[in-house]
Design goal:
By secondary structure, the protein is of the alpha/beta class. It has a single domain, classed as UDP N-Acetylglucosamine Acyltransferase, domain 1. The chain is 25% helix and 25% strand. The chain has two helices and 18 strands. Strands 4-7-12-15-17-18 form a six-stranded mixed sheet, with no helix packed on it. The chain has a five-stranded parallel sheet with strand order 1-3-6-11-14, covered by helices on one side. The chain has a five-stranded parallel sheet with strand order 2-5-8-13-16. The relative contact order is 0.08. The mean pLDDT is 89.
Length: 190
């Protein structure tokens, strides 16, 4: 049955639907522009490091080093990289905030993932997500294809072996390896 009340409801909801669709479209256009400017152009193998660094700085990324290899991906602005640090080819910074200290070496295809999907009341993963900050201290080395999960803090003078998955804070200087990453050898300069 259709009547005046159902027509009024449809008329009132139509502007909300249009507004929501417009919001999604403008968000997607903004993300496309960001990806084109920062990741496609800034991450191009054709650009010298100084030009790549300039694009990142203009985009609002807090990079105090130009040692960023091609094909690195940054999905948000809140990424900070300290002086004399180095990001190898294909590093992926998903989300924000991500803070990398001074004199830290990040291997090829390392993944920093800040998005966390909390459990809902039934124990299922919710569709919504929250960001959890990732911090990497000074004088660290992360090997090739290390995965750093949301909310993790890696203290200074830590080495993480290639392929390790960092699921919790690493606080004691030394060498960490495995899935999940665990301390293999304690000590400075590992």
């Amino acid at each position: 049955m259709t009547g005046p009340s159902s027509e009024n409801t449809a008329e009132r909801s139509a502007p909300r639907v249009v507004a929501r669709v417009w919001a999604v479209i403008t968000h997607d256009i903004g993300r496309a522009f960001w990806h084109g400017w920062v990741n496609a152009l800034g991450g191009s193998v054709l650009l010298p490091r100084a030009a790549r660094w300039a694009i990142y700085r203009i985009a609002g990324l807090d990079f105090r080093t130009a040692n960023i290899s091609p094909r690195c991906t940054f999905t948000h602005r809140q990424v900070s990289i300290g002086s004399r640090s180095f990001l190898n080819i294909g590093v992926f910074c998903e989300g924000e905030p991500i803070v990398i200290g001074d004199n830290t070496q990040i291997g090829p295809e390392v993944l920093f993932a800040t998005a966390h999907h909390p459990m809902d009341g039934t124990g299922a993963s919710s569709m919504g997500f929250e960001r959890r900050k990732i911090e990497v201290g000074d004088d660290c080395t992360l090997g090739a294809r290390v995965v750093v999960l949301p909310g993790v803090m890696i203290a200074s003078r830590i080495t993480v072996a290639a392929g390790a998955v960092v699921t919790k804070d690493l606080t004691e200087p030394g060498l960490y390896a495995g899935v999940p990453a665990r301390l293999i050898r304690a000590g400075q300069g590992s």
